[in-house]
Amino acid sequence: MTTLNKDTILCISLAGRPSNLGTRFHNYLYAELGLNFAYKAFSTGDLDGAIGGVRALGIRGCSVSMPFKEAVIPLVDELNASARAIESVNTIVNDDGRLTAYNTDYEATATLIGRHALDPATPVLLRGSGGMAKAVVAAFRDAGFGHLTVLARNEAAGRALADRYGYHWVRHEPQPGADIIVNVTPLGMNGPDADALAFPQAHIEAARAVFDVVAFPAETPLIRAARAAGKPVITGAEVIALQAARQFELYTGVSITGDQVERAAAFSRQV
What we know:
This protein has ten helices and twelve strands. It is α/β, with parallel strands linked by helices. The chain folds into two domains: 9-103 and 241-268, 3-Layer(aba) Sandwich (Rossmann fold), CATH 3.40.50; 117-231, Rossmann fold, CATH 3.40.50.720. The strands form two sheets. It has a six-stranded mixed beta sheet, sandwiched between helices. The protein has a six-stranded parallel beta sheet with strand order 9-8-7-10-11-12, sandwiched between helices. Helix 6 (155-164) links the parallel strand 8 (148-151) and strand 9.
């Protein structure tokens, strides 16, 4: 394990509710690869000051989580295409004081759409309208999907999301029939909604593929039900591992293998 010293390169995360996930993922790979890097999670009530510190102290990389993903935009120097596509940031790279913002959630979703060979001609039903929903909807749009319905109880947010990307919004569940169903809400996440099924069984039975961005647990009620119905699935664990791997490569310039990503992801999920 690399010993911290004056030359150690620091990467951080900024979140309203910091977790150990990124800390464990990145530090695991730094140790395995012998890189003189360290990663630490932070929260802040002073975003301007925190980003000023990233710039002034030479902090190499900064992961950005809610509620800072949009508020941070005026504080960086450049938006990469991935962040510009959705006007939301989850990653900042510091090159000698110049801050470039990315959105690796968008990149991870786009990668998974291609990796799982989802057909752009098929209709998609997506539940959710928050920040992550914007990344997912944009990735489907940019992959050429012409028929996507945003299902959201919040009319203002749901309609705005659908309109932005040229899709349709509904408040109530339509009839089953979407070939791809996607959950981008906390339903099924560890906590008060842990037992909630994001879509009724009829929608699962009618779908050709089921995508749940919830990462904890990896096997949500929706994913378990989809597997039991024999449907191909994309899990939130895949999304979070890919987005963290992309961050790692942006910060270090080191490419990592799929096996390394899987090992780091498994380590990061340990209690």
